[in-house]
Amino acid sequence: MHRRNPLIARALFWVGLALLILSVYELCIRLDASWGWARGYFLSHYEAQTPVGIVLKYIPYENLWKWGYMLLCAILALCAVFSRRTRRQSGFMLVPAAALTALGFTMRLSIFGDLVRTLKLLPLTAFTALCLLHVVIPLPQPKQQPRPNFAPQPMQPYQRRRRSERRKAS
């Protein structure tokens, strides 16, 4: 089970790279967008001397789940890009990939609607499908070529040929 199919391994690399780029981009966009509200809340805490409990009550914690989700997608993609992508590793990556795919379809990730969410989850879905294919599809067995036999052969008795037989052979 430790061997790999080179076509599926190459496809896993490229899908993992696309997932990594998309996850890191989405994570950076979400962190940049959330910096404004976090800065405002904590400035109001220091300037107005409001208690920390009140400030923490108004923080939108849904964004933390989305950050964690994108971070887990990026870590999974990093594992796919920098691993050897064998069948065994695909089996290990299949469980988190399937869980992240299912979680991604249940979360509301975008304000633009279902089409953008589906386009964002397309690399993760393809990654899960490729991991499943890599684990399930058996590898083609190479054709067995006869191995050369280097064992010593029994000696043939020397048969002396007549001079007339030697002339005919040459």
List unreliable stretches of 5+ residues.
Answer: none
What share of the residues does DSSP label as strand, in percent? under 5%
Biggest β-sheet description: none
Mean pLDDT: 79
Oligomer status: single chain
Kindly state the number of beta strands: 0
Helix content: over 70%
Number of helices: 6
End-to-end Cα distance? 58 Å
Elements, N to C (H/E): HHHHHH
Shape: rod-shaped
Gyration radius, in Å: 32 Å
* Helix/strand/pairing category: mainly alpha
What is the strand and helix layout of this fold?
Elements (H helix, E strand, L loop, with lengths): L5 H43 L3 H6 L4 H21 L4 H20 L7 H23 L26 H7 L1
Tell me about this structure.
The chain is mainly α and 170 residues long. 71% of the residues lie in helices and 0% in strands. The protein has six helices and no strands. The chain has helices spanning 6-48, 52-57, 62-82, 87-106, 114-136, 163-169. Helix 3 (62-82) runs antiparallel to helix 4 and helix 4 runs antiparallel to helix 5 (114-136). The protein is rod-shaped.
Quick recap of the structure?
The protein is an all-alpha fold and 170 residues long. It contains 6 helices and no strands.
Which characteristics define this entry?
170 residues, mainly alpha, 0% strand
